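fwd from M.: "can u put these together and see what the complex looks like"

so here's what she sent:
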Amino acid sequence: MQIDVLEIEDTRAKLLIYDADPFIVNALRRTLMSDIPKMAIEEVDFHLGPIGTTEGGRVADGSSPLFDEIIAHRLGLIPIPTDLKRFNRRDECDHEPEKSCPLCTITYTLHKVGPCTVYSGDLEPINGPEFRPRDELIPIVELSEGQAIYITANAVLGTGKEHAKWQVTSGVGYKYYPSVTIDDSKCTDCRRCIEICPENVFEEMDGKVVVKNPENCSLCNTCVDECPDSIKVEGDRTKFIFSFETDGSLSAEETLKYALQHLADRFEALRESVSELK
Ligand SMILES: [Zn+2]
């Protein structure tokens, strides 16, 4: 299997995978969705009762319009910057599983007094400013006059297999590499394919219809339905266009490298297990 990077940005990647079988490419897709570890908020402590403010010694009520469970759920879904070399899974850390330490846990505090909207950027990381959520404008809750929240939250490592809040990637998908050809001897130059193709695969050049962007083709065959004699669309079953995005907790490059290493380790473990059967 060979992989060429067609496009890679901080949180998205588009790859060309060739000399591969669909089951291998699907294994990569499933690994990207469920096996990449990331930090996410798992425990939230709410301060109950009156919360003091610094403004003129006012005291606000420790309440908000949302149930605590809803706020905790929203906090869990905020992408937390993750350094996989720095953190252990809590159950693999060198202490009791119910305890925590800076090697397995990022602790945040959140103290806001209404009226205001509480955003993800209001989370204050105790472990260091590098763990501040990169997406600072995710709304959590709107507080009215006299309302306040004071929260301590712990983020730990997990994977998408355990809960969707630990899923690093989204929009993970692939398609067969498209091959689009026009038989000029049968093309009537009606231009219908240019009009109906939703992906702008065709264009007119020097009075003829030509295939401009074959990689855009989604193999929908709308053009073939229109001109079955002259247009041929096929997917190459050994070549794939693969794309995914991350939520920003890890970069697309880190995520892909981790996924490929994880797959290689799993296949190696399977090979060793099978060889022991002999
Ligand atoms: Zn620990």
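replying to her w this: Residues 38-166 form a domain with the RNA Polymerase Alpha Subunit; Chain A, domain 2 fold (CATH 2.170.120.12).
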